[in-house]
Amino acid sequence: MIYLWLKAGHIIFVIFWMAGLFMLPRLFVYHQETAPDSPENDLWVDRERKLLKKINETIEKIDDDDYGFCEACGVEIGIRRLEARPTATLCVDCKTLAELKEKQLGG
User: How far apart, in Å, are the Cα atoms of 29 and each of 23, 35, 41, 45?
Assistant: First the structure.
């Protein structure tokens, strides 16, 4: 039980750390004056919105004890993948397959 709490705490820390890294470039980029309605500003706002949505979904999965399992096949997602991308919802195999299908449909 303690292991699960430590694992969840570690994952939450990594998620917040990633969110902080995501915001750092914005702090430096926006020292120059940009118009609030510029396409660059809209791009950043859209990325932030998507990241916050993924973080909230991940926190909900942690609360529901459903975190760390692939949505497609149900297999446990590897710890290395979760450390690299804490908001991952697919295991490496399913993500690779999804990317291949996307390439075939797109190109």
Answer: 10, 13, 10, 13
Q: Is residue 62 a contact partner of residue 12, using CB atoms and an 8 Å limit?
A: yes
CATH number of the domain that residue 47 is part of: 1.20.120.910
What are 38-60's pLDDT values in tens digits? 777 777 778 888 888 988 899 89
Q: What is the pTM of this model?
A: 0.62
* Phi and psi torsions of 76, nearest 5°: -65, 130
The band of 92, judged by pLDDT with boundaries at 50, 70 and 90, is: very high
Strand ranges for 6-51 from DSSP E: none
Here the tokens at position 98 are 């999804």
What whole-number distance in Å separates Cα of residue 37 and Cα of residue 50? 19
Q: What backbone phi and psi angles, to 5 degrees, belong to 91?
A: -70, 170
Total structural domains within the chain: 1
